[in-house]
Amino acid sequence: MIKFFLMVNKQGQTRLSRYYEHVEINKRTVLEAEVIKNCLSRSKDQCSFIEYKDFKLVYRQYAALFVVVGINETENEMAVYELIHNFVEVLDKYFSRVIMFNLDRVHIILDEMVLNGCIVETNRNRILAPLLVLDKVAES
Amino acid sequence: MSDVVERTLSALPRLLGQQELGAGLGGPVGPGRVSPTSRLGSLIRSITALTSKHEEEKLIQQELANLKATVSAPSTTLRLMKECMVRLIYCEMLGYESSFGYIHAIKLAQQGNLLEKRVGYLAVSLFLHENHELLLLLVNTVVKDLQSTNLVEVCMALTVVSQIFPREMIPAVLPLIEDKLQHSKEIIRRKAVQALYKFYLIAPNQVQHIHDKFRKALCDRDAGVMAASLPIYLQMIKENSSEYKDLTGSFVTILKQVVGGKLPVDFNYHSVPAPWLQIQLLRILGLLGKDDPRTSELIYDVLDESLRRAELNHNITYAILFECVQTIYTIHPKSELLEKAAKCIGKFVLSPKINLKYLGIKALTYVVQQDPNLVLQQQMTIIECLDHPDPIIKRETLELLYRITNGQNVVVIVQKMLDYLKESKEEYTVINLVGKIAELAEKYAPDNEWFIQTMNAVFSVGGDVVHRDIPNNFLRLLAEGFDDGKEDAQLRMYAVQSYLTLLEEEDALYSQKFLQVMSWVLGEYSSLAADVDPEVILTKLHGLLKKSFVTSETKAWIMAAVTKIASRTSSSKTVDKLIQEFSNSLDTCVRQYAFELKHLCEDKALMKNLLPFDASYTDMVVDASLSFLDEFVAEGLGHGAAPYKTHHQRQEEKLSQEKALNFEPYGLSFASSVSSSGIMGRQSPTGLSFGSDMSGNSAETGHKETNTLKLEGVRKLWGKEGYLPKKENKVGKENEPQTDSCGSLLAARVGDPPALRSDQGGSFSEEDKEKQQLALSLFTGLGSNAGVSLMGRADTTTQKFKRKSKINETQNSEETSDFQKGASSDFGPLLDTLPVSMEDCEGDIHTRLRKPTLCSSDIPEDNLAFETPESLKQPELDDRLSDSRPSQITLFADSSIEIFQPSPSGQCASAEKTLLVPSLPEELEELTHSELVELCQSDAFALYLCKVWTDDSLLLTLFVSNKTTSALDAVNLVFEESEHFQILESATYQFPVIEAQGVEHCKKCVWMDKICAQGILSGSVSYQSDRDTRLEFSIALSLLDFIRPMEMTTEDFGKLWLSLSNDVKQNMKMSSTQDSLSATLTTLQQKLKLHIVDIIGNEGILACQLLPSVPCLLHCHTHSGMLALWIRSPCSALPDGLLYQCQKVMEES
Question: Is the entire prediction scored with pTM above 0.95?
């Protein structure tokens, strides 16, 4: 079970957050601050899974950006670790040509992949299909 | 792969707004996509540029004000609205609530076209939570979009439904979504299945009728749709695997196809076919094959194949391998697969890649219970991991060590844990580890000194965050003592000395809990240290009382200690000073103590009487009705005082005054209101201070009031189950009749751990030697051979802290004693050469003889000859019998009078029946109970059952009547584990002795763990020395056995009703005899043990609870001969179960 999906930069600014269990807004910011603090405190040669309270954090760093996923003990850490990469690859495939600030689109992509804390789709073509249709309609 | 990563690395920060200068440089801006010069873009950029939180807040507040104005302006276009929504999402993400925009998000979803609509839905799913009231406004839009001809809209609606949807509106969309399951497009079918999964999560009973549609989805021609159905199955199988065993074949086939690369190529991830799908299937198969050899048989092949195919060196294959390993160790074991899995784990653990190492340690932790040898093979790596620079690896390794702790390595492992705690100050880790240390220390402490010092460390490191069970259990352990009085005294004395030394340090700051423990121990046992002047201790305690960091609660503990010590000294200056000083303290609690102390000091005789030495664990007769106060109460009432209200009543009144919704489950406070208030309400010992000498330990007070509550809490943390629970059980039994020869036998097998020997080939460096040394101390007692020795020796060490089996007397938990006594019986056959087993042997033969003679009066020798080979199939047993032949003959002669009494069997039995029919003990006779039924009988004894429905449990009273003419020793009653029922305390009971023609009974409290209409609890009775006299029995228990009325007011009902989520509705036809509502309700009340809360017109409300305390509320409404029932409960299965019972009752009447 995935509890939350975060993208945070090195300065601790949240770039994307999606919670799969309801968390109060003020608690989210506290949590995110602690999560990023935890991630930043770790060096490259340390492992990518952190025990945090009663759940685990799986994180990957891409340049100045951390993607952090909170999971419970039933989840397979390595599978989630690769899920992050799959997600990033999908983003890469979709956004490769244009530079922009697309919070909504990143969310739409993520929503295709993870629902209610479950991994529901990992096929890149299928993840992007709905969004590409929307773009096509908008263009015409 | 690396080029992908690189591209990603460079692209990501840009697309998420890291790079400020990137604006406009990146090529053509697509028409649908927001340009970086957009408002959001500039907002993100300016936020990124800020340096202080304060500035950020100012900026965002301003932004929010702008947004507020824009979204509420009528001229705002949908396109602009969409942009505003994204900015609002951004603001909320940073932690600034923007609730003014929620309604506009819903409007956007309603009015926008496609992308705007999608953003509207997205915003709704991010802003609102499941129970948000605005969510209802979304339903219409969703219904409309589901019916749209535009597939994109249908898709969006399905997506939002599977993210967030109001539970009560499911019926409005369910038929539409069911339709979509037949849609021609895979994406629609897939999303429809996802939506149904959501419904299953939030209201399982609403989708009960479409289970066959899930099956259809599982068999869908499209892999994506099939994959979407897996989370549903995973969930359902987790809840009840037995219903889905028939699907094992399908899951296996699917996995085979996936592994075999039969899916379209775009399902591959780095050339691995649908890895996440594989993982999910493996997980499902693991659940299906768990404890089920037949199902597991079907799974072995595909597991083998998965292992074989996952050869690629890529993270994702490791993830699959890890899942395979877990599944292999979850299902019924198969040696070939275990071997392969072990190899796999070995590869992980030894990998230089840190993430793999982590997985390896985690896997080891998972498998250690089944396969301790594996840990032995990896011991050197584990040692390295213990000193790993990465604390996470260390932590995981400690978790592993925790599971392999035994009496021989406990000192080293606990030391490692304490070392870790020195580095980590994270609260959660501290609580967790400190709890584990305390548990291990109690279980395996090698000596008193170590135990006390370890506990000191626990209290010092843990501070006040330690779980409150830890000090409670520690004190209980000291108070109860062990089987050896001398040991007890030593332990207590050591504790006293240790605390006195600690208190020597003037400026040391101890946690409150530690101070409380110290003061209780000093109060109780300081007189054991004869060489210490009580005055010295009193001075120290006095000093503590004046410290500002000592809380008022702790002061109460200290005062109690002072009082106890004062009772044992003739006169003390310090006490006098203390009384004087604190008689006008501002702290009322301390002041009261001071006054009490003063009065007690004036009457030393009374004081001695009140505070006897070392009596904290003696039972006290408590006049629970407080009858001695009757006069006082009557006088008070006579003077016009208000009558006393129970805790329950007061709480109800308080609740009815509160306006806010009460989300606390009601059951909690009602279930054992007296006991819980007794314990919770009394943090400090004040309340009972002099009433009983248990003042220092509030938990103990609770123990007297309700055994069940207290012992439950204890069992969780301190019970016997720990490392190797099953084996330990067996071991415990083997331990008992140990003799010297047994010890030496076992000791002979000890030797070095096997793997270590093989390692010790060449010469080692100093460091290596050190590690070897550590390994030796850590892994002693592990592994199959060594396992035996561990068990033998662990006994001597754990014995030290084995609780005295005092509980015996209180009837409620015979765990310990059962264990010990049951042990000797089971052990007999194993230790055939030992003299100690002789006694058992004799017993064996004894009963075996008795059996035939009761049935017929044939010549016993023949019977014996006939019986022996049949009943003793194992060769060892035969050996044993021949060994003990001589004694057999003598025995024979001795007891012949008893055995050969000629009495026709039939007559005998009937006579016994009349003689031996048991009756309920008086205290139970008053409670509602069932008729006495016979469960089973043999020649030797009969078993009867009577169900007693007490307020807080179902009490099964089992009677064993001895039909023979000699006493039966050690009759064992064992309940089998049941998934539906939970037997409180222990599932076994042993009758130490049942007199000839006598009846003994035992009581077992049962709760329903998993809801079912009707379930079977089975078990067996066996008579120790005769393996053949084992009788099986089963008891049918119904849901109704566990339903009790729940009293509440209409108002409480209303509040509770609103807070409950799981509900069912059903219309039923009323028969002519129950035409009026009240008649119907009365029927329900009587048959189902419900409480009628209120009847208003043609509506009635009833309440009941499932033991221990799950409330269930019923709402009844009559309408032209129909009864509409609406049932709600926090437990999802309960409404269904109760509805079924209601239907039954209605049909019957």
Answer: no
